[in-house]
Amino acid sequence: MSSSLWTAHKGSRKHRERTGEMSELKPGDKVRIRANPSRVGTLTDEYDGPPNRRRVLVRFNNGDEEFVLMGSLEKVTGETMRPFALLQSGRYGRVRDLRGAVTYYRLSGRLANLIYSLNTTNTQFLAYQFKPVLQFLDSPCNGILIADEVGLGKTIEAGLIWTELCARMDAKRLLVVCPAMLREKWQDELLNRFGIKAEIGDAETVYQSVKKLFRGEVQEVALIASIQGLRPPRGAVAERRANGPTGKLAAILEEKAFDEPIFDMIIVDEAHYLRNQETQTHKLGRLLRPVCESLVLLSATPIQMKSDDLFSLLNLLDEDAFPYPHSFKETLQANGPIVELRDRLLREPLTRQEFVSGISGSIAGRIFKDSEQLQHLADNPPTEEELASYQGRSLLAEKLDRVSPLTKVIARTRKRDVQEMRVVRTAALIKAEMSPAELDFYGKVTSAVRSFCLDEDISTGFLLTIPQTQMASCMAAACRSWLHRAGKKGAAASEFSETAYEAFGNGSGEEDNGETKHLGTLLSLLVDVTRENSNYEELRRGDSKYGELLKALKGYWRENPGKKVVLFSFFRGTLHYLHERLAEDGVPAVLVMGGMDKQEAIRKFAHPAGADLLLSSEVAAEGVDLQFSSLLINYDLPWNPMRIEQRIGRIDRIGQEAERILIWNFLYAGSIDERIYDRLLLRLNIFEQALGSMEAILGEAIRALGYDLLVHKLSEEEKIARIDQTALAIETLNRTQETLEKEAAHLIAHGEYIQNKVKAARELGRYITGADLSSYVRDYFTQEYEGTRFIRKGDDEQYEVELSVDAKLSLGAFVESNRLAGKTRILQEHTPVILFRNNVGEKNYHAEIVSQYHPLVRFVSEELRAKGKAGGYHPVSAIEVQQGAVPGIEPGAYVYAITRWSVSGARDTERLEYSATPLDSLVALDEVQAERLVNVAAMQGADWIKAQGVLDHEKVASLYDDCLKDLEWRYENFKNDIQRENNDRISLMINTLERHRQAQGRKIEERIFEHVASKNIKRKNLIKAEEGKLKKLNRKIDEKIAMLNSKQKIQSSEGVVSGGVILVC
């Protein structure tokens, strides 16, 4: 447009009356559309249209160019956009303004009412798996013991906690310590579910990494190591240094115990191995705890409140909070009245008098006598209406849970409490009638072993039970194995020990008791009996159990072609034998045993084109998920019910899609196994109902039974009586365990309430989606870096990116300064296609995944923080959403407001809170409805273009102010609750630190005293180092206490995030 035309147009009287300030516009000005203030661009000098409807070309920040009526534009000035005034004038933004503003604050990583790990990993959504995440975030010691039963996904729960930490504190340094057999599983799970490339290492690898971390040479690490491989040697620090990698590692961990932690998190799987405080494994746990910010312990063992095991693990988790067994019991007793009141609230309505009485009982104890939270509840009891409604009582229950943060240190879920795990188990018994050759072989070996016991005066011992169990597994395989082991005492001992462990359970075969001296004689006896009284080929031809197996498998596959089947045996000889025979009969199978690459074997088995049968030992299957199979075969039966439960747990676990799983149990008719099955295993209903986690309890009873039945000459009546006695004892133990589980509630937060919070978070959209990230990144770049373009590819959030020169320079500087060069290829010459998908574990070989951790997202957040604004998003929006997307919300217009609450004290926390009210009603939505409406509108709504012309803007502004008043009132209550909780927490933490100072200081002073008294020059040289440790300890604790005292008075703030109007139509 020529300058003369532009001047003539500006000179039009009608134009000046119509546009007012438009007379001030000139080419190059930054302008926005009045009806859509978020659409910002630059005015050009090109003009189109007739004189009375002139249009001017605007180059918008997203790269679009469009001729726009000049009267619909306004100049962008530096003045603050005031929400109330904007609503009064009807100047609404778009749905992306609401979504962008909310996303900006969500990506801060500090929102307490957001679950950052929700829907961001390659895991199925199961609400109970987020219970440990929420409990961990409230844990006073940055630690948690996850004691879920087998098969519920403790590995996934630990991974979700790590994902949450990555979002909240940019965690980068992870160490996983687990049994050696689980290392590959952890590596696969971390990579495929959580996108973490972890390295499997030994003690030397960990030692080198620890050195580099302390020196600041590396910033990011993910390691997996075995418990056995890191276990420290015995001896003093100086001696350990010379004792290989484990000694060097132990020495540096001990020396750095009072420095700042170097790992953001350490995960210890199968943590029950650490429970014995006299072992070096426990010592390893002691060495690791001070060098990590957060500790997650995983164990499927039962919670037994009267056992020292639980205290030992909690003491390891937080030595200061659980310093002595007696203080542990005192904490349990103090929590008792609170837990009892909490459970009554969740079970039934209470009167105000009953509630106050329950609170008074809690305050009476020493631990909670100064609790401001409890005193406030006693002075301000809930109304009768709140006590009558379940929602009101649930909120009170949560407040009681928050009184003692120690209830957050244990997470416990049982299979029977999880709806997703309720798979029907159907068991079938398949008996094999022994052939004459098998009957003869079985009888003669049994008789020979019993005679051997009498001759050698042996009444107990696991070795003597093994020949019997190996025959019960497979006669032909036992015969062949003994003949091959002739003269090979070492190989036989190893095989016998493995069979004992797999058949009887934990601890079997660990003690020698001098029995190995009999091993050679026993093996010679078995070889002689086998050579004299049996023929392997005859046993093989007449193998009755194998015949039943082959017939059953062929029948199953005729009806279920391609279905995967898992077969377990505790005897290696049986597995090799079956593998050979099945191959001869045209049935391919994958074999997996200890010492094999089990992950590769499982991958072959899981592949659709792979074999349909897996032959596995228990040890090989530990930590393996086989839920894609729905038929499990027990080719032999471990007498320990927990061993059977662990087998079944390989397929009866999360992800099992079949409504019913089949369990086939094979045994020889007339054998002792048949009596055990009928009178013990069926009585305990082990095949159709999960028994729980009682391995440590059951193991000894089962082993004692085995010795009695196999070693002593008992009559049939005596055998049956002995089995019944064991079954009765186990039933009693089971009932005792149930009692202990109930007592455990004194130290476990209310699970159902937490689980409901998780489900609500998912329903209310309290997580970040790929679409959120897409709008967030694209809006910022197109507005702030002119010339940047995102070109959509298909229907998904997939784009080709063309960054402007300035954008490349700014992003490149950010990536370099934050050492993120290996995290993106977007700055390379050939820019990749990007896909906005907030899933850290997803792989896509055609596009670069942009999740909440991607450099693009972090760059935008950092730029916005530096500018001190929420992205320049228009503070008010008008949105319309379909009623079907918000069930329970009536059609009509709703005014809403969102504010951000920020509180800093012993814990820093932020929240986004919502308020909404109908335009034509005086009854506001409740908090949950308001949040649901606004979040659904942000994610699924569209711009309400007609809002400016149909709304009473003064009324909208007035109702918006009412929403803010509601939020301000709620904010004051929230702030006061947090202040009370803050005071209680700081008091607890200071007392804990002082106890820690006394306990650790006493240990150091005792060592100094011993060094002074010693005549050893080397020990005297250690005095100065110990004195230095004492000074460092006192300085560190003084600093922490000073920091806590500075946080006694919380700092809080409240700010508006967004407001506007939503039409539900």
Task: Give a short summary of the structure.
With 1065 residues, this protein is of the alpha/beta class. The chain has 41 helices and 27 strands. Strands 8-9-7-10-11-6-12 form a 7-stranded parallel beta sheet, sandwiched between helices.
Tag the structure with descriptive keywords.
1065 residues; alpha/beta; seven-stranded parallel sheet; six-stranded parallel sheet; 41 helices; 15% strand; globular; disordered N terminus
Itemize the secondary structure elements and their pairings.
Layout lengths: L2 H9 L1 H7 L10 E4 L2 E13 L6 E6 L4 E5 L3 E3 L7 H6 L6 H12 L24 H8 L4 E4 L7 H16 L3 E6 L4 H12 L4 E2 L2 H13 L5 E6 H4 L6 H5 L2 H12 L7 E6 L11 H9 L3 E7 L9 H10 L7 H23 L4 H12 L8 H8 L4 H5 L1 H14 L6 E2 L12 E9 L3 H21 L9 H8 L1 H10 L4 H16 L14 H15 L2 H6 L2 H16 L5 E4 L3 H13 L5 E3 L5 H9 L6 E4 L1 H4 L9 E4 L6 H9 L10 E9 L3 H10 L13 H17 L4 H29 L6 H13 L6 H15 L4 E4 L5 E5 L2 H13 L16 E3 L11 E3 L4 H13 L8 E6 L10 E13 L3 E11 L8 H14 L1 E2 L3 H4 L2 H61 L3 H4 L2 H24 L4 E14 L1
Helix pairs in contact: 4-34, 4-37, 5-6, 6-7, 8-11, 14-15, 14-18, 15-16, 19-23, 20-21, 20-22, 21-26, 30-32, 31-32, 39-41
